[in-house]
Amino acid sequence: MIKVCLADNFPVTHFGVKSYFKDHDEISIVANVGNFSMVREILQSKEIDVLVIDLELEGLASIFEIKAMLKNHPTTKIIIYSSLSEQIYAPNAIKAGVAGYVHKTEKLETLGQSIVKVQQGKIIVNENVRKNMALIAKQSKSERLYRKLSNREIEVLRYLSDGKKNHEIADILSLNEKTISTYKLRLLTKLNVTNLVDLVNKAKTLEIV
């Protein structure tokens, strides 16, 4: 059996996923956690084959924390299971080392198939996203700038869109406030806007936030 840990903020998601896989032939949900610190505890105390985790999980401030987790637990595969735009977030997640990205609008059957496939060593991502990743790779740097925001830039943009100030974002990401200001300036340049309001609006238009 593939031992799975589900990390999600919402009890209804835990209930639905656990109920669906209750009698599954290949998958066993062995742990359900509601915040990122609990994920660390579970990975240290239990053998987990596949971690299914939401990018918006409480306590998860950065994709870099997932990258570090993969380094510390190389035998555990990670699937991002999120309602955030797959188009925007999947490429950076895959780049960070996750094995798959499943949008929450997909059927639980798709999640199950993805769990089985990543355990077999495959990378699971939507075909349209895969095609776009290939196209972006072929584009010049100037053509792909707004679609090729770095992990950090996307994270900073998300927090700015939530109304957080530079010093608050610096605290969350454990970075210097000047560094956050630098990311903010890069975002303004890359998205071709001149102020924070337009930056947030542009991010919403592009479904980055």
Topology of helices and strands:
Elements: E1 2-7, H1 11-20, E2 27-33, H2 36-45, E3 50-53, H3 63-72, E4 77-82, H4 86-96, E5 100-103, H5 108-119, H6 127-138, H7 141-144, H8 151-161, H9 166-173, H10 177-190, H11 196-205
Parallel strand pairs: 1-2, 1-3, 3-4, 4-5
Commentary on this structure:
By secondary structure, the chain is an alpha/beta fold. Helices cover 54% and strands 13% of the residues. It is built from eleven helices and five strands. The chain has a five-stranded parallel β-sheet with strand order 2-1-3-4-5, with helices on both faces. α3 links the parallel β3 and β4. α4 (86-96) crosses α6 and α8 packs across α10. The radius of gyration is 18 Å and the shape is globular. The termini are far apart.
Topology order in helix (H) and strand (E) letters:
EHEHEHEHEHHHHHHH
Q: Classify the secondary structure makeup into a structural class.
A: alpha/beta
Alpha-carbon Rg, integer = 18 Å
Specify the helix fraction band: 40-55%
Short description:
Helices cover 54% and strands 13% of the residues. By secondary structure, the chain is an alpha/beta fold. A five-stranded parallel beta sheet has the order 2-1-3-4-5, sandwiched between helices.
Features:
209 residues, globular, five-stranded parallel beta sheet, alpha/beta, 5 strands, single chain
